[in-house]
Amino acid sequence: MTASISITTTRRPSSNLDKAAAKTWFMTAFHGGMPRFKPYLQKEGANFSATELITIMDSFKEPLHSHLRSEPPSVVALSKYSTPGSPIDILGIANSAGKKQLSLGFVFNVLSVFFLNMDTVEFEGGMWHEVFPPLKGIAKWIMFKAVPMWNPLCWRFVSCSPEGKEKQLASWKKKKFGSKNNET
Protein backbone atom coordinates (compact mmCIF):
# COMPACT_ATOMS: atom_id res chain seq x y z
CA MET A 1 0.00 0.00 0.00
CA THR A 2 1.48 3.33 -1.01
CA ALA A 3 0.54 6.56 0.68
CA SER A 4 -0.20 9.54 -1.46
CA ILE A 5 1.77 12.64 -0.65
CA SER A 6 -0.17 15.84 -0.75
CA ILE A 7 1.63 19.12 -0.41
CA THR A 8 -0.52 22.13 0.19
CA THR A 9 0.34 25.73 0.80
CA THR A 10 -3.00 26.74 2.27
CA ARG A 11 -2.71 24.92 5.59
CA ARG A 12 -1.65 26.79 8.66
CA PRO A 13 1.93 26.19 9.80
CA SER A 14 2.32 22.71 11.29
CA SER A 15 5.81 23.05 12.72
CA ASN A 16 8.37 25.49 14.01
CA LEU A 17 10.18 25.15 10.67
CA ASP A 18 7.01 26.09 8.78
CA LYS A 19 6.56 29.12 11.02
CA ALA A 20 10.18 30.22 10.72
CA ALA A 21 10.20 29.96 6.93
CA ALA A 22 6.65 31.34 6.56
CA LYS A 23 5.83 28.25 4.49
CA THR A 24 3.19 25.68 5.40
CA TRP A 25 4.28 22.48 3.69
CA PHE A 26 7.68 21.48 5.09
CA MET A 27 6.41 18.78 7.46
CA THR A 28 3.30 17.42 5.69
CA ALA A 29 4.75 14.98 3.16
CA PHE A 30 5.18 11.92 5.39
CA HIS A 31 1.96 12.01 7.42
CA GLY A 32 0.04 9.45 5.30
CA GLY A 33 -1.31 6.87 7.76
CA MET A 34 0.33 8.37 10.84
CA PRO A 35 -2.91 9.97 12.06
CA ARG A 36 -4.46 6.44 12.08
CA PHE A 37 -1.54 4.73 13.87
CA LYS A 38 -1.93 5.87 17.50
CA PRO A 39 -5.77 5.93 17.54
CA TYR A 40 -5.83 2.38 16.13
CA LEU A 41 -3.50 1.08 18.85
CA GLN A 42 -5.39 2.97 21.56
CA LYS A 43 -8.71 1.58 20.35
CA GLU A 44 -7.63 -2.03 19.83
CA GLY A 45 -5.12 -2.37 22.67
CA ALA A 46 -3.90 -5.95 23.06
CA ASN A 47 -6.46 -7.15 20.51
CA PHE A 48 -4.87 -5.34 17.57
CA SER A 49 -4.52 -7.10 14.23
CA ALA A 50 -0.89 -7.50 13.20
CA THR A 51 -1.95 -7.42 9.54
CA GLU A 52 -3.90 -4.18 10.00
CA LEU A 53 -1.07 -2.57 11.98
CA ILE A 54 1.45 -3.47 9.28
CA THR A 55 -0.91 -2.06 6.63
CA ILE A 56 -1.12 1.22 8.55
CA MET A 57 2.66 1.39 8.99
CA ASP A 58 3.19 0.51 5.32
CA SER A 59 1.00 3.47 4.37
CA PHE A 60 3.58 5.93 5.68
CA LYS A 61 6.86 4.01 5.57
CA GLU A 62 8.08 5.27 2.18
CA PRO A 63 7.22 8.95 2.73
CA LEU A 64 8.68 8.79 6.26
CA HIS A 65 11.87 7.07 5.07
CA SER A 66 12.24 9.61 2.28
CA HIS A 67 11.66 12.45 4.75
CA LEU A 68 14.25 11.16 7.21
CA ARG A 69 16.78 10.46 4.45
CA SER A 70 16.42 13.98 3.06
CA GLU A 71 16.28 15.75 6.43
CA PRO A 72 19.92 16.94 6.64
CA PRO A 73 19.98 18.49 3.13
CA SER A 74 16.53 19.98 3.74
CA VAL A 75 17.67 21.67 6.94
CA VAL A 76 20.69 23.11 5.12
CA ALA A 77 18.41 24.29 2.29
CA LEU A 78 16.37 26.33 4.77
CA SER A 79 19.12 28.93 4.59
CA LYS A 80 17.52 30.30 1.41
CA TYR A 81 14.49 31.36 3.49
CA SER A 82 16.62 33.07 6.13
CA THR A 83 16.93 36.80 5.63
CA PRO A 84 18.57 39.53 7.73
CA GLY A 85 15.10 40.78 8.62
CA SER A 86 13.74 37.33 9.40
CA PRO A 87 16.61 34.99 10.28
CA ILE A 88 15.94 31.29 10.84
CA ASP A 89 17.59 30.07 14.01
CA ILE A 90 17.90 26.32 13.31
CA LEU A 91 19.62 25.65 16.64
CA GLY A 92 16.91 27.59 18.45
CA ILE A 93 14.22 25.54 16.72
CA ALA A 94 16.06 22.31 17.57
CA ASN A 95 16.48 23.36 21.22
CA SER A 96 12.80 24.28 21.45
CA ALA A 97 11.75 20.93 20.00
CA GLY A 98 14.13 19.11 22.33
CA LYS A 99 12.73 20.84 25.40
CA LYS A 100 9.22 19.76 24.43
CA GLN A 101 10.39 16.13 24.36
CA LEU A 102 11.80 16.15 27.90
CA SER A 103 8.71 15.15 29.81
CA LEU A 104 7.83 12.52 32.38
CA GLY A 105 6.46 10.42 29.53
CA PHE A 106 9.82 10.60 27.77
CA VAL A 107 11.73 9.71 30.92
CA PHE A 108 9.51 6.81 31.92
CA ASN A 109 8.83 5.40 28.46
CA VAL A 110 11.57 6.27 25.99
CA LEU A 111 14.59 6.34 28.30
CA SER A 112 13.60 3.15 30.08
CA VAL A 113 13.10 1.32 26.77
CA PHE A 114 16.48 2.61 25.60
CA PHE A 115 18.22 1.49 28.79
CA LEU A 116 16.53 -1.92 28.86
CA ASN A 117 17.59 -2.69 25.31
CA MET A 118 21.31 -2.21 25.97
CA ASP A 119 23.51 -5.24 26.56
CA THR A 120 26.11 -3.77 28.90
CA VAL A 121 27.41 -7.07 30.29
CA GLU A 122 28.59 -8.88 27.15
CA PHE A 123 28.81 -6.16 24.49
CA GLU A 124 32.37 -4.89 24.04
CA GLY A 125 33.54 -7.11 26.88
CA GLY A 126 31.26 -5.38 29.37
CA MET A 127 33.24 -2.14 29.31
CA TRP A 128 29.99 -0.14 29.67
CA HIS A 129 28.53 -2.21 32.53
CA GLU A 130 28.00 -0.04 35.62
CA VAL A 131 29.32 2.95 33.60
CA PHE A 132 26.43 3.70 31.23
CA PRO A 133 23.81 4.85 31.84
CA PRO A 134 25.28 7.04 34.56
CA LEU A 135 22.54 6.24 37.06
CA LYS A 136 23.12 5.05 40.60
CA GLY A 137 21.02 4.06 43.58
CA ILE A 138 17.33 4.92 43.61
CA ALA A 139 17.38 6.55 40.15
CA LYS A 140 18.73 3.36 38.59
CA TRP A 141 16.28 1.21 40.54
CA ILE A 142 13.33 3.35 39.36
CA MET A 143 14.38 3.26 35.68
CA PHE A 144 15.34 -0.41 35.54
CA LYS A 145 13.01 -2.10 38.05
CA ALA A 146 10.04 0.09 39.03
CA VAL A 147 9.10 1.52 35.62
CA PRO A 148 8.93 -1.94 33.96
CA MET A 149 6.46 -3.07 36.66
CA TRP A 150 4.05 -0.53 35.19
CA ASN A 151 2.32 -2.09 32.17
CA PRO A 152 4.38 -5.33 32.24
CA LEU A 153 2.76 -6.74 29.08
CA CYS A 154 4.61 -4.11 27.05
CA TRP A 155 7.88 -4.30 28.96
CA ARG A 156 8.27 -8.02 28.33
CA PHE A 157 9.51 -7.13 24.83
CA VAL A 158 12.74 -5.45 25.97
CA SER A 159 15.83 -7.36 24.92
CA CYS A 160 17.91 -7.10 28.10
CA SER A 161 17.39 -7.70 31.80
CA PRO A 162 17.65 -4.85 34.32
CA GLU A 163 21.14 -6.19 35.03
CA GLY A 164 22.20 -5.51 31.41
CA LYS A 165 22.23 -9.12 30.20
CA GLU A 166 20.67 -10.24 26.94
CA LYS A 167 17.45 -12.21 27.52
CA GLN A 168 15.04 -14.40 25.59
CA LEU A 169 12.58 -12.21 23.72
CA ALA A 170 8.88 -12.69 24.38
CA SER A 171 6.74 -14.12 21.63
CA TRP A 172 3.21 -13.20 20.73
CA LYS A 173 2.40 -16.87 20.32
CA LYS A 174 3.36 -17.72 23.92
CA LYS A 175 0.58 -15.58 25.37
CA LYS A 176 -2.96 -15.65 24.02
CA PHE A 177 -4.46 -12.21 23.55
CA GLY A 178 -7.01 -13.19 20.94
CA SER A 179 -7.02 -14.61 17.46
CA LYS A 180 -6.13 -11.30 15.80
CA ASN A 181 -2.64 -11.23 17.35
CA ASN A 182 -1.65 -14.64 16.10
CA GLU A 183 -1.83 -13.70 12.43
CA THR A 184 1.90 -13.45 11.81
**DSSP, total strands:** 0
- Compressed to H and E, one letter per element, the order equals HHHHHHH
Mean pLDDT: 73
Distance between the termini: 18 Å
Whole-number count of domains? 2
- Poorly predicted tracts of residues: 1-13, 173-179
What coarse outline follows from CA principal-axis ratios? extended
Note the topology.
Blueprint: H1 16-21, H2 34-44, H3 50-77, H4 90-101, H5 104-115, H6 137-149, H7 152-155
Helix pairs in contact: 2-3, 5-6
Give an overview of the whole structure.
- This is Putative hemerythrin hhe cation binding domain-containing protein.
- It comes from Diaporthe ampelina.
- The chain has 184 residues and is mainly α.
- The protein folds into two domains: 16-98, no CATH class; 104-166, no CATH class.
- Helices cover 47% and strands 0% of the residues.
- It is built from seven helices and no strands.
- It has helices at 16-21, 34-44, 50-77, 90-101, 104-115, 137-149, 152-155.
- Helix 2 (34-44) packs antiparallel against helix 3 and helix 5 (104-115) crosses helix 6.
- The chain is extended and about 55 Å long.
- The two termini are 18 Å apart.
- Residues 1-13 and 173-179 have low confidence and may be disordered.
